[in-house]
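User: Fold this one for me? It's Pteridine reductase.
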Amino acid sequence: MTMQLLQGKVALVTGSARRIGAVTVRALHQQGATVVVHYRNSANDAKALCDELNAMRENSCLMQQAELADIDSLQSMIDQIISKTGRLDILINNASSFYPTKVGEIKESDWDNLMASNLKAPLFLSQAATPHLKKVQGCIVNMVDIHSERPLKDHPVYCSAKAGLAMLTKSLAKELGPDIRVNGVSPGAILWPEDDDDSPEMKAQHQSILDKTSLNKTGSAEDIANTIMFLVTQADYITGHIIPVDGGRLLNQ
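Assistant: Here's what I get for Pteridine reductase.
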């Protein structure tokens, strides 16, 4: 039997009922971790994922609902996880809001929403988790974005939030070492937004992005999950770094 690298460990992945978060949860679970699926509104997807994983290994997946913009709910979520599992080894700050905010049309609610999910929640959730991660020499992985370095047109608030998360990743690594490692992953063209249509204009926009990507193809959610798994299981001497998973997109203007 192959040794499972995360046997006996507990991992929380925010926004993990679907898409990249769900693929990451499956990867952590495959390596023996007990996984906590956080969701906001996707209760049915979260339940389906947990049912799938618990069928493979009994009591190996928990569901946890929380509104990440509510600071009190973050502490409550950590407290509930500890009461159920007794520990927390891995925190993956994956949840993220993403939508355009054109200058001249930006509302304060856009700022509040995008900053809350992409910057505020990772900070305060990491802070709530710190005492428990410290006990087990745990780690944090933040989902950043290549657009934290290169602005995406019509997305100034989102890009600013992700730029803040990039600096938060480095700052937390400095603050929490040597007990907790903190790193990030910066996806490029991995999954197109769900509300993108199949119009010729949208297809042309997608192709324009791929034309500026050295590997000339989209990546997969598994590419992100594999990088997270590397940081969690094989990167004991890496902290404060953000790994681009972008097919070479950052090489090109």
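One thing worth pointing out: The first strand starts at residue 10 and ends at 13.
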